[in-house]
Amino acid sequence: MSELLRVEQLVAGYGDAQVLHRIDLSLAEGRSLALLGRNGAGKTTLLNTLVGVTTHHAGRIHLGTDEITRLRPEQRAARGIGWVPQERNIFASLTVEENLTAAARPGRWDLSAVYQMFPRLQERRRNLGNQLSGGEQQMLAVGRALMLNPRLLLLDEPLEGLAPIIVDELLAALRRIVTGEGLSAIIVEQKARKILPLTDEAIVLNRGMTALHAASDSLLSRPAELDALLAV
Ligand SMILES: Nc1ncnc2c1ncn2[C@@H]1O[C@H](COP(=O)(O)OP(=O)(O)OP(=O)(O)O)[C@@H](O)[C@H]1O
């Protein structure tokens, strides 16, 4: 398997404040990674740094053979970084279908593939972004990122604030996307036990540093260690 993402000695944060301290990370093509850690550990900051919306202090990021460390967010998106931010950023005054097609690029994921993955979005295709439930908004945010046909999908707490039945529906879709389709992904999640079964590997961040990098199934089989790492 070839390497898709390589992060070396990355130091980043907001302005002068350093949040991430010398992060090293490698992800092979087709693999998925759960990014875990307590509140404030730096998970969102790491995703935001891969997207290019934080302050870079040191270190390098490669996507495939390209170094993207100094590229702007839109240039990284064009290189294949798809992002579903915590806020979802749905266009409230556009319809579901307009949200999906606004930034689409050709590839395996087109409208019919996204509607097949999320039939609810097809039912709601003429509704405006602000007429959707939280779960539908999250599905739309994932669908919109897929329409970019990314090489690497970044998801920031996709299950947050959703009703249990919607969590299960979204998890089933994410499983099909990362396991079935083999799309490389990094998923930030508070609910470790929900996300570990569908990822290959996991990183636990602590105070902006990597506390642990392990296979997801091995971490699931060590619940006491997992609890200790994630306990508030
Ligand atoms: N825009 C910002 N400006 C300055 N500091 C920030 C900003 N966003 C986050 N931080 C700080 O960076 C640190 C890491 O925050 P981050 O949101 O990355 O953590 P997290 O692991 O994603 O936590 P959570 O699970 O609460 O979202 C925290 O100390 C936080 O206060």
Automatic annotation (TrEMBL):
Pfam families given in the database record: ABC_tran (PF00005)
Protein family: Belongs to the ABC transporter superfamily.
Lineage per the UniProt record: Bacteria, Pseudomonadati, Pseudomonadota, Alphaproteobacteria, Hyphomicrobiales
Protein name: ABC transporter ATP-binding protein
Species: Rhizobium straminoryzae
Keyword ATP-binding: yes
SUPFAM superfamilies: P-loop containing nucleoside triphosphate hydrolases
Single GO biological process annotation from the record: L-amino acid transport
SMART domains membership: AAA
